[in-house]
Design brief:
- The chain is elongated and about 80 Å long.
- By secondary structure, it is mainly alpha-helical.
- It contains eleven helices and no strands.
- The chain is about 85% helix and about 0% strand.
- The protein has helices spanning about 15-30, 35-80, 85-95, 100-110, 115-130, 130-145, 150-175, 175-200, 200-205, 205-210, 210-240.
- This is Flp pilus assembly protein TadB.
């Protein structure tokens, strides 16, 4: 994987865990015909991998975004006392925590071995996946071409990011009840089904052994998945 170094754990651990979970699903659901259980286990494993990689990417981006205003402020302070922009970025990269510091150090290392500055900045912005980094890359590339001071631009960018973070935190606080309700509604059917499987297996076995039960179980799983996706989409769109 081209971006495997962005994840906090080796990338192959996620597919391995998903494969184990799929195998456990096949073991537990021996009453379901293979023509149904095998595609379900494969689809579940793929979705689990996507969810895990997406969660790790979102966490990394959130950390980068929270750290970025402080990094910009450090660069602005250094530029204000006459330090060149690249030297200011080197100092900020040494002091910045993970993942911002290593990403900026990587960009500066590429520049030191002869890669053009605008290309280094574009790659750093692409790896981050954040629009704020793209704006930062554009501002520094223009500054390198024109020779103008990036101080005002970087100060404005840091201020905008801080305001966006504050607004996002307020939105999450206001949407906390809806997010909790969505989580409960998503988990409750699975918990109840597991309890019935443990306490009255003959009662729930019909869902796995009878053709009508297969249809009911498929409709229930599809309805639950559609509801979870819809609630998640509404909440994410509201917070965007």
């Amino acid at each position: 994987m081209a971006r495997a170094d962005l994840y906090p754990v080796p990338w192959w651990i996620v597919p391995a865990v998903a494969a184990v979970a799929a195998g456990a699903f096949l073991t537990v659901t021996t009453d379901i015909p293979g023509i149904v259980s095998i595609p379900l286990s494969i689809a579940g494993g793929v979705l689990l991998c996507r969810a895990a990689f997406g969660w790790m990417t979102e966490r990394r981006q959130a950390r980068q975004l929270r750290q970025f205003p402080d990094i910009l402020a450090a660069i602005v302070r250094a530029v204000s006392v006459g330090i060149p922009v690249l030297e200011a970025m080197r100092g900020a990269a040494r002091e910045a925590p993970e993942p911002t510091g290593p990403e900026m150090s990587r960009m500066l290392h590429q520049f030191s071995i002869g890669v053009p500055l605008d290309e280094c900045l574009r790659e750093m912005a692409a790896r981050s996946g954040l629009p704020e980094y793209r704006f930062f890359a554009t501002a520094l590339a223009l500054q390198a071409q024109t020779g103008a001071s990036p101080r005002a631009t970087l100060e404005g960018l840091a201020d905008v990011i801080r305001k966006r973070l504050a607004l996002k935190a307020r939105g999450y606080a206001l949407a906390s009840e809806a997010r909790a309700s969505a989580a409960v509604l998503a988990v409750l059917p699975a918990v109840l089904g597991l309890l019935l499987w443990l306490t009255n297996r003959s009662y729930i076995r019909l869902l796995f052994s009878d053709p009508a039960g297969h249809a009911i179980l498929s409709l229930a799983a599809g309805s639950l998945a559609m509801g979870v996706v819809t609630m998640r989409a509404i909440i994410r769109r509201t917070l965007t």
